[in-house]
Amino acid sequence: MKAPPFAYARARNLAEVFELLAAHGDGAKLLAGGQSLIATLNMRLSSPRLLIDITRLTELSGIQVRDGVVRIGALTTHAEIERSPEIRKHLPLLAQAAPYIAHPAIRNAGTIGGSIALADPAAEWPACCVALEAQFVIAAKSGTHRVAARDFFKGLYATVLRPDEVLTHIEIAASGPDRRTAFVELAQRRGDYAIAGVAAVAKRAGGVLTDLRLAFLGMGQAPVLARNAMAAMEGKRAVADTIAAASEALSRDLDPAPDLYSSAATKMHLARALTGRALAALAA
Ligand SMILES: Cc1cc2nc3c(=O)[nH]c(=O)nc-3n(C[C@H](O)[C@H](O)[C@H](O)COP(=O)(O)OP(=O)(O)OC[C@H]3O[C@@H](n4cnc5c(N)ncnc54)[C@H](O)[C@@H]3O)c2cc1C
User: Fold this and answer.
1) Which terminus of the chain has a lower count of CB atoms within 10 Å, N or C?
2) Does 152 contact ligand 1 (Cβ within 6 A)?
């Protein structure tokens, strides 16, 4: 199928984006990497009257580290994050997750901002951002505000973003030397969206994991922060006890729906198995 007709405008700065959004309301869509939006147009799942190309907004690109905070522009591509020495050093979880996103050609064009705004529940960046307690910087004509990742995702492809707003940056505290991270997922084929996955973060001191955070992808309508498992794991000295506590508590955090390939019971089994792998990696 072919996309329905639409008008196209290439914005030169954020002010132009806000003008166009104000004039066209929810009849306009921002175009970033186009790796999801163009497919939805071609399948006629979406029919905006205007595409606003934001790819020339250099102020929305790049990775900076300042005062212990990593600031990632919304237009930074998956591949730039995957290859960035700053990300490997300060946010290794993102470097661990990036290779699971689609294929190299898609990672070269797709952006972190597009992935977060789209809010696919099986996407890698939203779960990583929830695990890392990221803050999203959102701009509109009326000003800029920040939203915590855990408050941003509202359901299946649903977020708090309004049609007149642009996600401009993602801010995440740089990992200290005691922070451990692990990312594991299972997909039908390499490069497919995950059937299930988990982003795991902890501190490790004296051989003990503390401040554990587990955020799941593919296990609900949005990324799921496993609060019960996180509480149950605290204070356990042996990794086997940590895994057992998480495994038991996960049934209170996760209630997956079956998908094309897996029953809900299979997805729960996979979530427990992946959690065991992630916790073993954190403790290694
Ligand atoms: C075959 C295939 C496999 C894929 N597999 C995976 C996968 O395994 N994991 C995964 O995470 N993704 C996967 N993707 C999706 C890919 O990661 C996309 O890059 C991503 O979902 C969207 O980013 P984009 O920059 O292409 O956004 P676009 O497609 O340009 O936009 C997506 C949506 O976000 C909005 N938007 C974009 N940027 C902003 C912004 N800054 N502020 C507000 N709204 C904005 C757009 O208006 C649109 O509604 C796959 C895609 C394909 C085609």
Assistant:
1) N
2) no
Q: Whose CA is nearest to atom 4 of ligand 1?
A: 102
Distance CA 156, CA 72 (A): 24
d(CA 239, CA 244): 9
pLDDT digits 0-9 by tens, 108-124: 999 999 999 999 999 99
Q: Residues 6 or more apart from 54 whose CB is under 8 A from it? A: 11, 17, 30, 31, 32, 60, 75, 166
Distance 257 CA to ligand 1 centre (A): 23
3-state secondary structure of 217: strand
CA distance 109 to 255: 33
What are the pLDDT digits (tens) for 158-179?
999 999 999 999 999 998 889 9
Q: What is the pTM of this model?
A: 0.97
CA atoms within 13 A on the CB side of 95: 13
Q: Is 82 in a helix, a strand, or coil?
A: helix
